[in-house]
Amino acid sequence: MEEKRMITVTVDGARYSYPQGTPYRAVAADFQDRYPNDILLVNRDGKLCELHKPADRDCSLKFLTARDVPGIQTYERSAVFLMLKAFYDVVGRENVEGVCVGYSLSRSLFIRAKGGFTLDQPLLDRVERRMRELSAAALPIQKRSISTDDAIELFQEEGLFHKARLLSFRVNSHVNVYELDGFVDYFYGYMAPDTGYIRCFGLELYEDGFVLRLPTLKDPDRLGEFRPSVKVFHELQASALRAQALSASNVAELNTIISQGGATPLILAHEAMMEKKIGDIAAEIAARKEVRFVMIAGPSSSGKTTFSHRLSTQLRACGLRPHAIATDNYFVDRDKTPRDEMGNYDFEGLGAMDVEQFNTDMVRLLNGETVELPTYNFIRGKREYNGNFLTLGEGDVLVIEGIHCLNDQFTRALPRESKYRIYISCLTTLNVDDHNRIPTTDARLLRRIERDARTRGHSAQATIKMWPSVRRGEEENIFPFQDSADMVFNSALIYETAVLKPYVQPLLFGVPRDSEEYIEAKRLLKFLNYFLPIPADDIPKTSLVREFIGGGCYHV
After folding, report:
1. DSSP code of residue 476
2. Which of 229, 409, 451, 487 has the least C-beta neighbours within 10 A?
3. CB of 353 closer than 8 Å to CB of 404
4. Cα distance between residue 207 and residue 211, in whole Å
5. Are 282 and 317 in contact (CB under 8 A)?
6. What letter would DSSP give residue 67?
7. Using only C-alpha atoms, what is the Rg of the chain?
8. pLDDT tens digits for range 355-414
9. Which domains does the chain carry?
C-alpha cells in the first residue's frame, strides 16, 4: 500500500507534519485546547476553508471560532439550516408553504412561516427539541457541487421557487448545495461540519413570526439578550410591505425587474415612497408647534446628511424655516479629547463633545437670544467663532445632526416638548432568498467604501480595516438610544446594491490578497455577484444614494 506524502502545516510559527489529505477538522482538533470556543473554520494562507476540506499542500493555518466575524457568521448560517431541517421534520414538508428568514433583531433573527399549521410557542418548543436532537446526533452537514440546471430543477421540485429563480441568474455552471439528513438547501457562505457544533440557540414567538435566538461575538456560549427595538421592528415590517408592493422582496425578484427593463420605474416608485415618508415627518413636526429642535442620529453611512437636506426642503414646504447645525462643531479642543483603551483619540464618545456649551447655546436660542455659533477647525483641533450669528424667530427650527442626538444627556437642558428626535438607519429588508438574509451592516459598508474612495481618497482596504471600530462606536453611542426616537426612518433603497455594484466592485478587487482585509473583500465580491447592475443615469439628484456615488444636488 502506497504511503501518503507528508505535508508541512505552520501554526503560530511552528511547523507540523500531516499526511496529505488530512481533513482540516483533524488538524484543528490538535489545537482545539488552545481556544475556549469551537474552531469553525481555518484560514489557509488568506483563504477561508471549511473543516471538511482536506489539507492537500504545505500551508500556514489560522483557526477561527465564533469570536471571529467569519466564525459567528458560519455559526448563524448553520443554525438557520438546523432550524429549517427541524421545522420541516416537525411540521411535515407537505404542510410548509414557506419559511422566510427576515432580518436581525436584537441578537436574533426574525422569521416568518406559513402553511397548514398554527404558529404558536408549543409548536416552536417542539421544533427546538428537534433541533437539540439533531445537534446531539452530530449529523454531518455535507457539501456537494451539482450543475446549476440540476439545482434549479431540485429546488423547483422542493417548492423552493425563490432559490430556483435566484440560481437562474447565476452564470456559473455548478453551484454548491448543503445536505443535512436528506434536507438539501443552498446557502451563501460557509457551514460548520456537523450539527454538533450548533448547541446555543432558542426559539421564541414574536409578533407575527418567531425569533431564532443566537449567541454573540463577545460570548459565543450564551444567548444574546433579546430586547428588540419595537419602533425599529415596526419600520422593518413597513419596509418589507413596501418591498412586496414593488415585487422586489429578494434578489431574484430584483434581477427579474432589471432584466425586463423595469429598473427605472422601480427607482422612481421607491424614491416617491421615500419622499412621501419624509413629507409626512415634516408635516408631523409642523403640527407640533412647540418643536424647535429636530434631532437626527443614526449609524455610519445611513444617509443622515442627505436626509437632513430633504427634510429641510419639506419643512420649508410646511411653512417653517429650518437651520442646519452640525454637532461636530461642538467637539472639545483636541488636547481635551479623551482617549480609548488603545491610546487613540475617542471622537465618538460623549466625552469628546462640549455638552455644556451646546446646551447653553441651545437654551439661549430657545429663549429668543442671539447666539454666535462655533465652527470647529479640524486641522487646528479647536473651535473658532467667525461671526455666524443666529436668532430663532417664529417658524424657525434647528435641524441638528450628530451621533448623540438621541441621548438625553447631550440635550439635557432642553425641554422634551421642544425636541423631535429621528433615528435613521439603512434597514435593508431585501433578502438573497428566503433562507439567506442580507445584513444591514453590509449595505452600509458598501455605501461607505464608495464614499470614502470618492470623497476622502481612502482605499477599500482602509475602510474595511476601520469598520470594526466604527461598529463598536455605534453599539455604545447610537443603538442604545434608538427607541427614544419619535420617528424611525429607513434609508435603505431596494435597488441601491445593484447601483453600487459597478462602483464598489473595482475597489474591492484592489484589496491585496495578502492583507487581513482580503477575506472580507472577497466575501463582499461574492455577495455582489448575485446582483445584476443598474446604471445610475435615472437616479434622481435628490436620492440618498447620491450621497455615496456622487452627482447629487446637495453639498454633502
Report:
1. H
2. 409
3. yes
4. 9
5. yes
6. T
7. 26
8. 999 999 999 999 999 999 999 998 899 999 999 999 999 999 999 999 899 999 999 999
9. 6-65 (3.10.20.30), 71-228 (3.30.980.10), 231-549 (3.40.50.300)
Rounded Cα–Cα distance for residues 492 and 506 (Å): 23
Angle in degrees, CA 303, 350, 337, rounded to 5: 105
Within its chain, how far is the Cα of 229 from the centroid? Answer: 16
Question: Would you say the C-alpha torsion 85, 89, 90, 93 has a positive or negative sign?
Answer: positive
Write the burial class of residue 185 (CB in 10 Å: 0-12 exposed, 13-18 middle, 19+ buried). buried
Q: Is the pLDDT of residue 4 over 80?
A: no
Counted residue by residue, the chain has a size of: 556
Statement: residue 77 has pLDDT above 60? yes
Q: Taking a C-beta distance cutoff of 8 angstroms, is the pair 330, 374 a contact?
A: yes
Residues 6+ apart with CB under 8 A from 315: 282, 285, 286, 294, 321, 322, 397, 399
Q: What is the largest CA-CA distance in the chain?
A: 94
CA atoms in the 13 A half-sphere facing the CB of 401: 19
Cell 409548536 maps to which residue?
123
Average pLDDT over residues 287-304: 95
Q: How far apart are CA 155 and CA 153, in angstroms?
A: 6
The single-letter code of the amino acid at 463 is T
Phi and psi of 67, rounded to 5°? -85, -5
Instruction: Provide DSSP, 72-132.
Output: HHHHHHHHHHHHHHHHHHHH-GGGEEEEEEEEE-SSEEEEEEEESS---HHHHHHHHHHHH
Quick one: which of 302, 316, 327, 301 has its CA closest to 235? 302
- Of 428, 422, 395, 393, the closest CA to residue 311 belongs to 422
**Packed helices 121-137 and 69-91: angle between N→C axes, nearest 10 degrees:** 120
Contact 287, 410 (CB under 8 A): no
* Distances from the Cα of 2 to the Cα of 5, 36, 56, angstroms: 9, 38, 16
C-alpha cell at 488: 424611525
Task: Choose among 79, 86, 120: nearest CA to 224.
Answer: 79
Sign of CA dihedral 284, 286, 287, 290: positive
**pLDDT of amino acid 3:** 65
SS3 per residue for 315-375: HHHCCCEEEEEEHHHHECCHHHCCECCCCCECCCCHHHECHHHHHHHHHHHHCCCEEEEEE
- What are the tens digits of pLDDT across the range 464-511? 999 998 898 888 889 999 999 999 999 999 999 999 999 999 999 999
User: DSSP letter string over 156-210?
Assistant: HHTT-HHHHHHHTT---SEEEEEEETTEEE--SS---SBGGG----EEEEETTEE
Q: Please state the pTM of the whole predicted model.
A: 0.92
Give the pLDDT score at 555. 79
